[in-house]
Amino acid sequence: MTVDAAVQAGIHALWDELADFNAAQADAARDHLLGRLCRLIDSPHATWIGAVRLGDPQPGDPVLGWRVGVIRYLHPDPAFDRVAQRQSEELEAGIVDETTVANVAGFGAFRVNLLADLAPPGWFEGEFYRRFYVGSGRTDAVWAGVPVNADAESYFGFYRGPGQPRFGKAEKDIVAMALRGLRWFHRAQFLSEGLGVASEPLAPSERRVLAGLLGRGTEAAIAAELGLTPATVHTYATRIYRKFNVQGRAGLTALWLGQ
Q1: Residue 59 belongs to what domain range?
Q2: Which of 117, 171, 182, 238 could be disulfide-bonded to 167 (CB atoms 3.0-4.6 Å)?
């Protein structure tokens, strides 16, 4: 892996900046990471995907039981969202592209791949590439897979569009260096979504209350900030503790600290 000194310094600064985000700022920290990496590799858009493995894979399942739990975008894009939704629907129907199969096949190990690493040259003339890449303004990608635990992985996708050159080894190495040293960050992202560690994913309203609980505000203060009643906040808090199998806020805080 070769990353020049100036870029390395930028990555080290990024790690320090991410450490300054508190536990209640998981979304802001993720957007900061995606935005900084996009600038480092000249990418206009990026996504983060929280993937979970739903038990033992069924016979014939090309993605070995892995499914998309949640997708977050650096920049809101309805067209991009429609494409992602269609991909998820086809995945559930058993229609899986070979690049997805190749990406998932490396589960359990940290890996970064150029789109060209995952697909043969002829794939770029095929229907999937036209529909799901060119159709949403993308022509190339770098994909990173980061294990969080045996049944949860982070996927990062960075894209380029028409008129831009293909990604190369330099960009691949930058993404690998930046993401490899952030195990705590990837775990915090999954905790904030309730993926892989909770009995079920958190609803959007629960995620907002979770941020308040991690920010150490009282339930009354959280209620005032979110425009809810204290009773509603208490109900959400109780659901959150139950989903994470912790005893109150002290247990929730301990979970975030890795204890």
Answers
A1: 5-182
A2: 171
